Amino acid sequence: MIPILFFQRLPIVALSLTSFCSPDLFASDSDLRFYTREVRIQTSDYTGKLTLCPLYDDRELAITTRWDDSNPRHYRMLKLMGDYGFHGTLYMNHGMNGEKSLDFDQLKALDADLGAHSMTHPRLATNLSINQMFWEVAEIRAILESERDQPINSYCFSDGNFRNRARPFMQGEIAKSLQRVGYTHNVYARFAESIPDELDAVSTVSPISAGDKNPSMKKFDQRFEQIMSDPNEWYAEAPCVSIGVHVWLYNDESWGEMEEIYKKYANRENWWYCDQSDYAAYQKLLKHTSWAVTDRKDNEVTYEIRVPYASDLGSNSPLSLRFSVPNSRVFVDGELVMARSDDEGTIFHLLPPDFAQIPREISYFRNLTNQPSQPAGSASETSLRAWLYLGANDQLQLQISNRSSVSVEEVRLSYILPPKYENPLAENLVGIASGETLKLERPLKVIGSGEYLWGVPYLLCQIDYLANGQAERVFVSTFDQAVQPPYEAGFRDDSFVSGIFTDLSISERAAELSEPGAAKLASLAWYGPTEMERLMYNRYVLATDLRLSDELESAPSGERYYFIIRELVSDQGGVLVSRSFARLKGVYLNGRKVPKSERGNIPIQPGLNRFVTIHKVNNRTDRKRDYFTYEVRSH
């Protein structure tokens, strides 16, 4: 199992934030590879037309499922789905909040399809620095692919968080990062609809929830009838219905109701029961497949069809085509293939050849501390091993070794770099002989400044190739040096978390503590922002788990509490907003206790403000870092 990485290198200072955006920096579709197929059709009418089927086998509707997080109940859900012919995708984290990842051997045995759900289940737009966000969405792909030996082409946001009012630019940064990493599908339709024109479009689904804890056939039927009553609202953009979202079923009654839903909606002859990876790949096939007529004569027409590699799309999903004349015979590269006819024509499928199929073996090599040399004895199930190192002056060094007994061919290097750097187009190599080691160096172009530099940038390279005519893949990664953001008055950098206390009478001093300029209580320890906190999160987030890590391990049992003090300067005044305030033990501002009825929007005055909150230690204090976020809005 690959451990979760947290950052520990020493900081240097960075510059102020600037923005950038250039269409040619994010064009992942321009990196697609293509193969061609000759399709010859014997027909009673050679003037017939060839078209792509909007869904596999020209079905009228695609239906799939989506189940989030690394939940051990997924095993039971997969078996239940299989009993009724349903397919779907598990959107997984890796070590979310200390939980163990699922058993990948068992997932393989169940033929589970996987999607990415971040490394640690954070709120990407609300909580993280740009570089931490990039690491969350990038490394999870490399880990899941190498553990499952299956490409990952789809993404699902933890907590559905892809935008934030306090940091509106993050939505665009997230969209750019997901494209750089290689995700072509997203389960959140609102996100997919908001992709800017300079980025590639992503496919999406039309969701229906059966109920996370207590599935209801009645509610599911109502929702299904509702969306089917007006398909014009969704079908053209997302002709795929997705059932989900969480497997929080705790009793046999809930599982029984879920089974009844599957039973009722199973075996529809004209539905495509697919997983999200197959659906996503099919949408890319529709967008990028093209053809030309190369010969047309009596009773026969020949096409040359240009199709993207399945390994670039993330699935071996076949492409379905329709020729408008029924009872035609179809030959692909000279071989007769199976086809079916209806009143509107003949339908046939194109499968990717072996060399264009998804990789069967995938490995991942991690350079956690950016060491120049790969440790001896690094195991690999793939033919190639690799090592990535970022040298001085942003010189990226890639070493690739062929330790197998065969030469590898059609080597393709795809760099997946954080927004700090310009992302280069893929690079092709002829091949690597058995026993040969290549050492390549590429200068990287820095195009970002300020927050694009802060934190610990994560760099990834994807190496695709053929070994004995079969596709394999290797990921290799490293980290740039850590860069601490400059001090910023207010919010996190002027905040302190007290040591843990059990005597609640201490809380009576909270109003006094909230007076601007008041001294902190000498009887308690006080902790300012940590280096790791400032590397990982943005200025609005107070990572109390990091500040109190030692005390949380040694504090006595029973009810335990702590203060958070924040100071901020407001030029014009405004209101404090947080979804956390309503459930806190106490909130105090500028010497006054704020009643619960006023915590929705707390007025702040121009100039210096100090507010104090009282928190109760619970089982989430040491892991839910988004608990203490807040923002200031103008009146």
TrEMBL record:
GO biological process entries: carbohydrate metabolic process
Ranges of residues in domain NodB homology: 67-167
Gene3D superfamilies in alphabetical order: Glycoside hydrolase/deacetylase
Pfam families hit by this protein: Polysacc_deac_1
Highest taxon above the source species: Bacteria
InterPro entries: Glyco_hydro/deAcase_b/a-brl, NODB_dom
Stretches of the chain forming a coiled coil according to its record: none
GO molecular function, one term: hydrolase activity, acting on carbon-nitrogen (but not peptide) bonds
Name of the protein described by the UniProt record: Polysaccharide deacetylase family protein
